[in-house]
Amino acid sequence: MKGYALGLVESLGYVGAVEAADVCLKAANVSLIDCELATGGLVTVKIAGEVGAVKAAVDAAGTAVKKVGTLVSTHVIPRPSTELYKILDIQKEKPVAERREEEMQPVETGPLGKTEEERKEGRSSNSSFAAQHCKSEEDLRNMKVVDLRTLARQIPDMPIDRNAIKFAKKEELIDAILYCCRRGEN
């Protein structure tokens, strides 16, 4: 843990502690260790990281807590002793268990990086979608754009990106839904 620090921000009330944790994590490259509730409304937020980052995060949190609640105290312990971790009930990171070679067998993938099972599932989900949700072009044109977007999000392998669906026009949505329906029927 050489070069690491422990930062503590103590506030009166939970809202101040949540604000402290949020500001700490946004202000610097630190990790949230714990948020400890004590009696009397005292809440302590514990963070860890590089010494400079923890100092910056604790300073920013102290300023932010003063705006939304009552700041009791802040403190940074640079390069804490390993004995301190016993008191704070902080577990050191455990090494990731090594996987056995049989667990890490390569999976055969086809074109587009999909396994054979995923391709079969995709086909069956498309055909089940086509059987359940495909409507005529006239029915789709009578639907509201909001309903078309909802329908489009339910379609697996939709040609329009999920994030672009909310900006798609009615004509684009209808064309994409009809394309998926025709593809699912084949």
UniProtKB/TrEMBL annotation:
Residues 114-123 have a biased composition (Basic and acidic residues). It comes from Geosporobacter ferrireducens. Belongs to the bacterial microcompartments protein family. Keywords: Bacterial microcompartment. One of its GO terms (cellular component) is bacterial microcompartment. Its main location: other. This is BMC domain-containing protein. Residues 5-89 form the BMC domain. Signal peptide: none annotated. It is found in: Bacterial microcompartment. Residues 96-134 are annotated as: Disordered.
